[in-house]
């Protein structure tokens, strides 16, 4: 079955991230969905034709990670927007952040430092269900730096298309707007779902 672009129009109307930026961003996301489907279709066709060892097949396969990760990371990113920006200090995730990082403010300092790095990519807070720990990390482009087996909880797009129309080169202002619009309930739900999986494996 083909992947379908999800409708994220519910996040329009945020303060600090304009509708113009979001509408353009949605179009880019839809392109990743289309390209993912196109690559999979072309590789399947080459496989059926017995051309799986051809250079074309290898090149398509190499491109798949970029397009697929671009699709999926955008879904996480849009999915954790349009909230109040305020985490629930009584939630399991908040307590886990304080335990892992020695305080919420120290976690935010770590995550913000990653998000401020030069280059295009993503800042992500992952949960490692095997080790039961949180890890903040940087993903270059869409696919370089993803840690196998870890579950994305909080995802921030650092490509210029996410903020240039609103803030040009002033990335710190975009980061502030992102945190102000972060939907912590969505992030907490991702954590709870993966914590449940971790507990089932441990049982």
Task: Write a short abstract of this structure.
By secondary structure, the protein is mainly alpha-helical.
Please provide a written account of the structure.
There is one protein chain. With 203 residues, the chain is mainly alpha-helical. The chain has two domains: 62 residues, Helix Hairpins (Orthogonal Bundle), CATH 1.10.287; 111 residues, Iron/manganese superoxide dismutase, C-terminal domain (minor pseudopilin epsh fold, 3-Layer(bab) Sandwich). It is built from seven helices and three strands; from the N terminus they run H-H-H-H-E-E-E-H-H-H. A hairpin with a 4-residue loop joins strand 1 and strand 2. Helix 1 runs antiparallel to helix 2. The protein is globular, with a radius of gyration of 18 Å. The protein starts with 18 loop residues before the first helix and ends with a helix.
